[in-house]
Design a protein that fits this description.
By secondary structure, this protein is an alpha+beta fold. It has a single domain, classed as Alpha-Beta Plaits, CATH 3.30.70.100. About 30% of the residues lie in helices and about 30% in strands. Strand 2 (about 40-50) and strand 3 form a beta hairpin. Keywords: Monooxygenase, Oxidoreductase. GO terms for molecular function: monooxygenase activity. This is Quinol monooxygenase YgiN.
């Protein structure tokens, strides 16, 4: 059984401008499809926050730090972030860590 000690967990809060949520959702839907094909990704999902309007939560698990770092250099992430910057209401908030319990 594979140990989970080195896996990287990330949750990112993404908030769209008023009226731009569907556009943001489409951008990240495309990104998710491409990212799920990357080596080292364990899971990569987006959840609509039921308590905060216009908010998506990116929930990610990566095999290791190296895999997550390589993700930042992919053309699909760079393209998605360029598009998303036009619809973000605020800077994304990133929570990153390793599973301890």
């Amino acid at each position: 059984m594979k140990t989970m000690n080195n896996t990287i967990h990330i949750v990112v809060e993404l908030v769209a401008q008023e009226g731009k949520f569907d556009e943001m959702k489409d951008i990240f839907s495309e990104l998710a499809s491409a990212t799920r094909e990357e080596k080292g990704v364990i899971s990569y999902s987006f959840i609509e926050d039921e308590n905060r309007k216009n908010t998506l939560l990116s929930v990610e698990e990566w095999q290791d730090e190296e895999s997550e770092k390589k993700h930042w250099d992919t053309p699909h992430l760079k393209s998605a972030l360029k598009k998303a910057n036009e619809v973000f209401a605020s800077e994304p908030i990133v929570h990153k860590g390793k599973k301890i319990i």
